[in-house]
């Protein structure tokens, strides 16, 4: 999502949905796809929902440090909805390792001192894919609100924030364009969108670029100490 003033299924760039991005588009994304910071909380499953999860034998997550809005939206999901959410998140990580990892599922292009599958094509895939799954299973509005809130962490780097927000939006668009698509079908569509240059990644100089402009070996990370960009207010999509 950009500044919050769209439905989460259309782009604010000059590119038409499904078309490769230009560097001009990427520069515009860096400026527009920024959100205001949120408060951070320690969230955990509590009350009757925790009791139901225990009775059902479901895994109960440890307390998580997340934004206040993320916690509010997770609280709106019932126990089964939370399980679907957790399963989809796990599925996105596994699918990323299978499609972009080596034979052991490890990142073959992780930069020295960097985190695996971060700021590159695999990262773009994972964000878009989990958004596609969330939009399909929980609705466009909830997925837009949740994954936008997920980026409202204080101190989030501008290039990384814009990359994630935009790629999230592409994933939700793919889900909207392919109602009823299976997990595997959505994964294939998202992977193709990355290859086509419909998403953005961070190059070795710390710049936001179209995902077909560089190879995995040519990706990098935001420049150390890069300033935050002004955030735009998030217009919530749900009541």
3D structure, described in words:
The protein has helices spanning 23-32, 47-55, 68-75, 79-100, 121-138, 140-149, 158-177, 183-196; strands spanning 40-43, 64-67, 200-202, 208-210. With 239 residues, the protein is mainly α. Mean pLDDT is 87; it is low at 1-10.
Q: Topology of this protein?
A:
Blueprint: H1 23-32, E1 40-43, H2 47-55, E2 64-67, H3 68-75, H4 79-100, H5 121-138, H6 140-149, H7 158-177, H8 183-196, E3 200-202, E4 208-210
Antiparallel strand pairs: 1-2, 3-4
Question: What keyword list fits this structure?
Answer:
two-stranded antiparallel ribbon; mainly alpha; 239 residues; two-stranded antiparallel sheet; disordered N terminus; globular
Uncertain residue segments: 1-10
Structural class, from helix and strand content? Answer: mainly alpha
Number-wise, the strands total: 4
Intertermini distance: 17 Å
Quaternary structure state of the chains depicted? single chain
Gyration radius, rounded:
17 Å
Query: Residue share in helices?
Result: 40-55%
Strands side by side in the biggest sheet: 1-2
